[in-house]
Amino acid sequence: QDPVQSFLFSGMALAATIFAFYLCVRLGGEEQLELVMLVGVVVLLSSIALALFVPSMGIMQLDGKGAWQGLFNHKNRCAMGMAFLLTAGLFLPAKYASRQIVKWGFILLSLFLIGMTQSRTGWLIAILLLMFVAGLKLFTRASAREKFLIATISSVVAIVVLLVVGEYYGIIARSLGKDPTLTGRLIIWKAVLWPISKRPFFGYGYSAFWLGTKGESVNVVLATGFRNLANAENGILQLWLELGFVGVAIFLYTLVRACKNALFCLRLDAPNYIKWYSAILFLEILALIDGGKFMFPNALDWILYVVACIGLAFHAEQLRARDGGLNRARLRSI
Question: What is the pTM for the complete model shown?
Answer without folding.
Answer: 0.86
